[in-house]
Amino acid sequence: MNELVTAVITTYKREPKILRRAVESVVNQTWRALELYVINDCPEDIILSDRIQSMLVDVQQNHSDLSIQYVPLEHNSGACVARNKGLELAKGEFISFLDDDDTWEPEKISEQIGGFTSKKIGMVYSPFYNIDFKGKKELIVRGDKSGVLLDDLLYRNVIGGTSMPMMRTSAMRDIGGFDPDMLSSQDYDTWVRMAEKYEIQFVGKPLTVRYLTGESITTNLKKKESGWLRFTEKYLHYYKNNREAFSNRLSLMVGEMIALNNKKFVNSVLEKYKGLYNQSVKFAYCKAIIKTVVKSVLRKK
Hints:
Blueprint: E1 5-11, H1 16-27, E2 34-40, H2 46-61, E3 67-72, H3 79-89, E4 94-99, E5 103-104, H4 108-113, E6 121-125, E7 128-131, E8 137-140, H5 150-155, E9 166-168, H6 169-174, H7 186-197, E10 199-202, E11 208-211, H8 221-234, H9 236-239, H10 243-259, H11 263-272, H12 279-300
Helix pairs in contact: 1-2, 10-12
């Protein structure tokens, strides 16, 4: 088994030193049948673009056996458009995407490619590590099932972010790639569409390192609201027949949004989807309110 794998790193205003860490985690993979596309979603910054290209030239000199290609978009278009450009260019039978501030373990590709034991399998996923700004490392296992995972994914995102899985390139093209209209939950939406048509395989070894910063979409409330609502409307036909899954997903949103002091959005969502969720959501709401009150009291002491 020596199939070509395409790796795609999308980057936006990332310091080349951090981007290089991601790039080197790709070129140092034990799997050598590999091509890498670095898609620049901020081509307007000429100085930064030149620095990125210079860095990639330097990396290429030390890895002449691999193809490393720099691809600037015509203008800033968003992460989904950048990823879809990589998907368009991909020559590999399999494809993996890597955020510019994350890294892969050296055996990431070789371990996950072994999970494609059937043409029915469109994606392979694994546990991953989170590293916070203090350097604390935590193992994250969101799911461990294989097969038809649509119901599991409607319940919650059991795969993780874009950097975690590997996909069959033909399957990614078949489902239409990433949805540019999703301002958040872009990965989650893609995994659900994959699960609608293909089986998903679990490989139990943690293979990705996710570095937590304050720069993610999750800190942008408007994008998060938009993504949550668009995702819900896209899959409402499933949720109408699975109140338990919708209630769980709604409970997770309630806790997160109230912690971010966004009670107004929570109340509007609860009113809009009245009748589709069970009592667990009200419990989650009360729990989140109590938690924020306790935190506020402790701060004043």
